[in-house]
Amino acid sequence: MDTYELLKSIFRDRVTKASSDLCCYSADGSQVRGRPEFVVLPKTTEEVSQVLAYANTHLIPVTARGAGTGLAGGSVPLSGGIVLDMTQMNQILEIDIDNIQVVVEPGVVQDKLNEALKPYGFFFPPNPGSSASCTVGGQIANNASGMRCVKYGTTKNYVLDLEVVLADGTVIHTGSKCLKSSAGYDLSRLFVGSEGTLGIITKATLKLAPLPKSRKLIMVSFKTPELAGQSVSKIFAAGVIPSACEILDRTSIQVLTKLEPNVILPKDGDVILFEVDGSKQAVDESAEMLAAACKDLASSVLVTGDAAQMKEIWDARSLLGAAVSKMDPTKTRIYVGEDLGVPIQKLPEMLAKVYEIADEVGLLPMIYGHIGDGTVHVGQFIDVLEEEEWNKLNTAADRLHLAAIELGGTVSSEHGIGAARGMYLQRQCGPAFDVMKSIKKSLDPNGILNPKKLGM
């Protein structure tokens, strides 16, 4: 029996090798490309196990894929083989409010999960910009986060247990329903962020958080991005932990203003959007303390608790990555050198470095991101038909990655390494990279799981 016949016997009409279908699975949101030979849509853990057992025996590469919203080529099948489209495993299996947790399949969409949790007064806090379409399995595989990770943390902080199918088809559980455990190695943390290179997640037990009762947004403008960076340390020193802390540089403001001329944003300078949440009294106090902490550095401060006003501002922020074409319709946003992270104290230096590199290379950068935890997203846009523009872009991206490492930071704060940043991981991690390769070899000795990712 050949591979296609075997897959047909398991999946029936949920397998394809049609060129038109395979093309849809050859890319994500990055510039990385790779075409699979087959795509299957499993509905059960047993089906995933059968595929992996067969693929491992016959040395066929297997790449898991959720919604394909990644920005680093993590779900792109660089070595061909089989793509496991996990979006059919999309059930919320259990909402266990008594134990403050939920059990889901990997294809559940983030926003749909939170819609289901809202009547209970709880939510799953990680909120990437693609939350309307990204899957929980993809979030776990990349340790995704988003605008409210300053207070609530990243995906890894909410994973209690994973059901994982290993390369040979063996099914394991990495944790339990306990809210904490000191029993052995933390296997859940091992698989979070592993980008499908160690096993395929087929079920997840996730910790929940109560929905906050009140929220306020504090919008602060600054004359320079360096002053904006300094303000982050000041508000933490003042004892305020915002739920969100987002920087929008002056180019970002121009983009959003062109997209929506009436949007409520300062028209010059660099802006940080702070949000505080919790009880009404705590929110009022935190907003007052935060505004006071920023006062000496700021050009203007706006505090609002108006729900419609806050929604308008946050909606504008969430569109930023896709809105850069408004600056110049002949240019395209390219996702390279765009997910840097540095220690908070190094933020002013990193922001200055971005502008220095862009100026020397001859590109206009756009800076935005979750500055409250040191994340700096750099938006670069070029005319994709001009080879020289590509050369400038790649030069800038390389220098940006190396600058982040030199400042004690990371080349990926939340989007993952995938194929796009694999060449930097060893330099960032040093001898720890060899430990990662040893773990990969132990769990996937034949190298069938998402090969050519993470620089391996």
Automatic annotation (TrEMBL):
<protein>
    <submittedName>
        <fullName>FAD-linked oxidoreductase</fullName>
        <ecNumber>1.-.-.-</ecNumber>
    </submittedName>
</protein>
<dbReference type="InterPro" id="IPR004113">
    <property type="entry name" value="FAD-bd_oxidored_4_C"/>
</dbReference>
<feature type="domain" description="FAD-binding PCMH-type">
    <location>
        <begin position="32"/>
        <end position="211"/>
    </location>
</feature>
<keyword id="KW-0560">Oxidoreductase</keyword>
<dbReference type="Pfam" id="PF02913">
    <property type="entry name" value="FAD-oxidase_C"/>
</dbReference>
<comment type="similarity">
    <text>Belongs to the FAD-binding oxidoreductase/transferase type 4 family.</text>
</comment>
<dbReference type="GO" id="GO:0016491">
    <property type="term" value="F:oxidoreductase activity"/>
</dbReference>
<dbReference type="Pfam" id="PF01565">
    <property type="entry name" value="FAD_binding_4"/>
</dbReference>
<dbReference type="InterPro" id="IPR016171">
    <property type="entry name" value="Vanillyl_alc_oxidase_C-sub2"/>
</dbReference>
<dbReference type="InterPro" id="IPR036318">
    <property type="entry name" value="FAD-bd_PCMH-like_sf"/>
</dbReference>
<keyword id="KW-0285">Flavoprotein</keyword>
<dbReference type="InterPro" id="IPR016169">
    <property type="entry name" value="FAD-bd_PCMH_sub2"/>
</dbReference>
<dbReference type="InterPro" id="IPR016166">
    <property type="entry name" value="FAD-bd_PCMH"/>
</dbReference>
<dbReference type="InterPro" id="IPR051914">
    <property type="entry name" value="FAD-linked_OxidoTrans_Type4"/>
</dbReference>
<keyword id="KW-0274">FAD</keyword>
<dbReference type="InterPro" id="IPR006094">
    <property type="entry name" value="Oxid_FAD_bind_N"/>
</dbReference>
<dbReference type="GO" id="GO:0071949">
    <property type="term" value="F:FAD binding"/>
</dbReference>
<dbReference type="InterPro" id="IPR016164">
    <property type="entry name" value="FAD-linked_Oxase-like_C"/>
</dbReference>
